[in-house]
Specification:
Blueprint: E1 9-18, E2 21-29, E3 32-36, E4 39-41, H1 48-60, E5 64-79, E6 88-101, E7 114-120, H2 122-127, H3 136-145
Amino acid sequence: MSDARWKPSVTVAAVVEQDGRFLLVEEMTPEGLKLNNPAGHLDPGETPEQGAARECLEETACAFTPQWLVGVYLARLQRPAAHGQPAEDITYLRFAYGGSVAAPDPARTLDAPVVRTLWLTPDEVRASAARHRSPLVQRCIDDHLAGVRHPLGVVGADPSLWT
């Protein structure tokens, strides 16, 4: 048995609905242009809630205020070797937060690899499933639409995170 410990890749996401439309980003991936919730990796020294706010701001230029936890999800990505890159087998652990955004800050640019932001209806999101970066895009939106709301305090952080 190996002594190596399995470690999922922790990500955070913002689920934002406004006037019946959801905020998504179109981003360049190794598989081409894909749609995703504003999302990314959790950084050292931040809580998942802080990470979701940071990622949303970086990817959309909109300040995000998390108001509830939509859910915690696991998904696996298996990417075959291609274009000189090795194969990947990554399990993602995603913390998805629901909330609201402010208007885009015109002084900010979108982080690469984001190409643009989009506001799509639930039907448009479903119709674009083949372009989703992961199955979690739809799952988070479906859970939001089903009224799934957990208090922010469900995910706690010990002060040792910052020391």
